[in-house]
TrEMBL record:
Pfam families, sorted: ABC2_membrane_2 (PF12679)
GO molecular function, one term: ABC-type transporter activity
Lineage top rank: taxon: Archaea
PANTHER family from the UniProt entry: ABC TRANSPORTER PERMEASE, ABC TRANSPORTER PERMEASE PROTEIN NOSY-RELATED
GO CC terms, sorted: plasma membrane
Transmembrane segments: 47-64, 89-110, 140-164, 176-200, 212-232, 269-297
Protein name: ABC-type transport system involved in multi-copper enzyme maturation, permease component
Keyword Transmembrane in record: yes
Record's keyword terms, sorted: Membrane, Transmembrane, Transmembrane helix
């Protein structure tokens, strides 16, 4: 064991020279399993999971109210002409998700690394035959997959609620298709929280960073939309909203009309306001923070 510890000190320096050759996936998988156990034992994480579930069930109430009085078997609901039931669900839900999902994701992910420092769990991991990369990727994947699973279960619950309240007008294909950008959006938010947790030294600092990051993300979107409309294309809120609006193109007014009041011309903005660009933005918000977080974590001193 002592011989391994000596070799592990230089393993990160030579890691990229020998990857993926002879890389053992069992090492990050061990960390992944340990992190999943820690997540399942946390009461806070259970409360967050319940809150996410409620957030995806809540729009059913508004959809049910909007469809009251519509004829049985009608193709569209009364909300507005051209709105399907699924469109009505996401029309109401997206305003909830862009406000609450960042809060839930930041609270779920801020302790990924920082809490381990305070609790001494990193020291335990340092005694295992794993590298810093194994620790980071295993813990990050556990947080991302668990939170994504919570979101997907919430979407399924919303779909089930739509079937119960409007069995003749439900659209399962479109509803499930909208879960893909929603999961990507949640993954991007958790990735930001993991990066904050990696870069800050303690649980309290990480919690403060998560709170500041949440308000910065929410109010930054409002400020950017008002002062620099073209820059809003790079915001995760806008990327998520654009993909959802692409799936349900009757949800919102014409983008050309909505953007005509900005400082940029509608034609210039519409070159960037597309589904593929929005998906690339979401992937950038996933990969960028994770990479930055690892660059900070690779200098972590882990006593074994």
């Amino acid at each position: 064991m002592e011989r391994w510890r000596v070799s592990n000190k230089c393993s990160d320096k030579t890691y990229w020279k020998r990857w993926p050759r002879n890389y053992d996936l069992r090492r990050p998988y061990q960390v992944f399993l340990l992190e999943c156990q820690l997540i399942s034992r946390s009461t806070t994480n259970r409360v967050i999971a319940a809150a996410v579930f409620v957030a995806f069930v809540a729009p059913i109430v508004w959809v049910s109210e909007d469809t009251i009085g519509s004829s049985e078997g009608a193709t569209f609901v009364v909300l507005e002409e051209g709105h399907t039931v699924s469109a009505a669900y996401w029309f109401h839900g997206i305003d909830i998700y862009v406000v609450l999902l960042p809060l839930f994701a930041f609270l779920f992910g801020y302790g990924t690394i920082a809490s381990e420092r305070d609790d001494g769990t990193l020291t335990v991991l340092g005694s295992l035959p794993v590298t810093r990369f194994d620790i980071y990727i295993g813990k990050a994947l556990a947080r991302i997959l668990v939170f994504s699973g919570i979101i997907f279960v919430g979407v399924l619950a919303g779909l089930f609620g739509i079937f119960v309240t409007n069995p003749m007008m439900a659209s399962p294909y479109g509803h499930l298709l909208a879960s893909v950008p929603t999961v990507l959006f949640g993954t991007a938010l958790v990735s930001i929280a993991i990066a904050v947790s990696s870069l800050l030294s303690s649980r309290l600092h990480a919690l403060s960073g998560a709170i500041v990051g949440y308000f910065g993300l929410v109010f930054g979107a409002v400020w950017t939309l008002g002062s620099a409309p073209l820059a809003i294309v790079g915001h995760p809120f806008h990327g998520y909203s654009t993909v959802i609006a692409t799936l349900f193109d009757t949800m919102y007014p014409s983008l050309e009309v909505a953007l005509s009041s900005g400082s940029q011309s509608p034609d210039t903005l519409l070159l960037f306001v597309t589904g593929p660009v929005a998906i690339l933005v979401l992937f950038a918000w996933i990969c960028g923070p994770l990479a930055i977080g690892y660059l900070g974590f690779r200098r972590e001193v882990i006593l074994s």
